[in-house]
Amino acid sequence: MRKSDAVKKHIAHLALAAGLAASVALYAIAPQLDDYAVNILMLAGINIILAVSLNLVNGHTGQFSLGHAGFMAAGAYTSSIITLSLAPVLASAPAWQAQVAFFAALLAGGLFASFCGFLVGVPSLRLRGDYLAIVTLGFGEIIRVVIQNTDALGGARGLEGIPPYTNLLWTFGIATVAIYVVASLVNSTYGRGFISVRDDEIAAEAMGINTTKYKVAAFVIGAFFAGLAGGLYAHFISYIAPEGFNFLKSVDVVVMVILGGMGSTPGVAAAAVLLTLMNELLRDFEQYRMIVFALLLIVLMIVRPQGLLGNFQRRKRKAPQP
Amino acid sequence: MSDLLKLERVTMEFGGLRAVGDLDFHIAPEEMVGLIGPNGAGKTTVFNIITGVYKPTCGAIHFNGVSLHDKKANRITALGIARTFQNIRLFGSLSVFDNVRTAMNGRLRHGIIHSLTRGPAFRAEEERIRSEVLALLDIFGLKDDADRQATDLPYGDQRRLEIVRALATGPQLLLLDEPAAGMNPTEKVRLMELIHFVQEKFRIAVLLVEHDMRVVMGVCQRIVVLDHGQKIAEGTPQAIQRDPKVIEAYLGEEAQHA
Fold it and tell me: Considering only CB atoms, which chain A residues are within 8 Å of B77?
């Protein structure tokens, strides 16, 4: 009895520890796996981070954002510029120093992305629904176009030769932290405020909830992890170009969130893995891939509109009887 | 000077339309006041002004001596004014329990960081909130429904839950916007008992906007009558029932029959 109470009390911490341990295990067995499998795992982990963080904004808080690729780009470029400029020093430094520098660069990318998230979050206070979607879409495109026209960032050619520091430990470690942060945030009295903002903003405000603060917090935290994902991606592929962070990339992440179920963290994480795998399986039918995705979404919306694991439904409010 | 809520010359204009004009009224602590008037008289506008949804064009509102001018809705709630809605506005995807605990958010000591570190202080507060919410639900007979989705409850229970949720913010003044709307006579009687019970148990003031005369007369100690945004009468239910201006503007034949 007492023992199970202790487990219950620390369930969140235990889950975090288990996730980190699993990441270490994955990292340890990586040399036994073939490169192709490692690559897919890496992409899956990065997609989990993207989907889980967007889910905080779009799913839990109900602020439909189409700018996740923009935040990813902000993080990817910031961290890459840092590691590239440190490259001459790090090349001769011991491996652990390079990893520490990499971590610092990732964090810097995440922080810069969350600053961008703050900038987008502020107009979101006045806008909702379609209008917000368009503003975030515009913001993502602005980031991309600015990069495209900045020679110091490689312009349209992109940045190449980014040191490949990303490994499975970083990827899944950060994915675990992202899941932990979003899940434990939402599973608290404080965090239920995010959902109340989605369900009924006017009622939330009337119940003493500072909806402004919640919306900005969702954008800032969501963008932070998108920035980390961007940094991981850049140091995995070693080459980034503005085109890789266009509108379609944002849509990819939105699809993961919708497929997994808005507001369901396990759901969107599963959907991120599923879509990564499907992308690979359908590689031979490249030109039909988008058709398959589109069909999948249409079928899902008809059969299971709440997503794979989502339990959130927009129920019709019962009309008051006269 | 011991007024809980005091409105002075409050005017609200939407473009050229004067929805509320030069309205003065006050509510004493633990008082039950009714706000009535025909459709379009400006009752809900007054509600929205008090709760910070609208900013009045001019005039002053004080709550416990604190000006509500330019205060956001969530700040006003934190000061001690809670409300329910004419059309039920529960958090549809949350459970009954979560609906109520969300309303305790304004009084939380922990925030984002504590939700992440989940230290002993955080757990203690969550546990305290849990027992407070369950106790509150128990008082209103909703404890067994704690885990149900709020919108799955029957209509009458949803109305009750809205009141519970408003009480969870720890108010000194509760604003009820047409709580009897859509209720049958039996439910209305139960609602009146409930309002009396809430007022006595929690020792709070209640401002009630309601169409149903029997409910207003049965609950309120004092009634303010609005017509075209102006206060046309104020007094005890008995006095209001006999006031010729009120009869003309609002009660009409129904009151003459009574």
Answer: 205-208
Q: Note the Cα A141 to chain centre separation in Å.
A: 18
Q: Measured between beta carbons, which residues in chain B are less than 8 angstroms from residue A199?
A: 90-94
Show the domain range for A110. Answer: 15-246
Encoded amino acid at A179, one letter: I
Chain B closest-CA separation from residue A316 CA (Å): 9
Angle of helix A192-199 relative to helix A211-237, nearest 10 degrees, comes to 110
Nearest CA in chain A to B159: A320
Instruction: Please tell me the least confidently modeled range out of A145-159, A260-274, B105-119.
Output: B105-119
Asked if B89 and B181 count as a contact pair (C-beta separation under 8 A), the reply is: no
Contacts of A204 in chain B (CB under 8 A): 91, 102
pLDDT for the residue numbered A294: 84
pLDDT for the residue A116 = 95
Please count the structural domains in chain A: 1
Give the range among A142-151, A294-303, B65-74, B154-163 with minimum mean pLDDT. A294-303
Interface residue B104 vs chain A (CB under 8 A)? yes
**CB count in 10 Å sphere of residue B22:** 14
In a domain, A161, yes or no: yes
DSSP state letter for B83:
E
What is the C-alpha separation between B42 and B230, in angstroms, rounded? 8
Query: Domains in chain B, please, with CATH?
Result: 5-257 (3.40.50.300)
Position A273 in a domain: no
Please state the length of chain B. Answer: 258
B178 Cβ contact partners less than 8 Å away, ≥ 6 residues apart: B86, B209, B210, B211
Of the candidates B106, B115, B166, the beta carbon closest to that of A185 is on B115
pLDDT tens track for B204-214: 999 999 888 88
Instruction: Kindly list the distances between the CA atom of residue A10 and the CA atoms of A15, A187, B117, in Å, as whole numbers in the listed order.
Output: 9, 13, 11
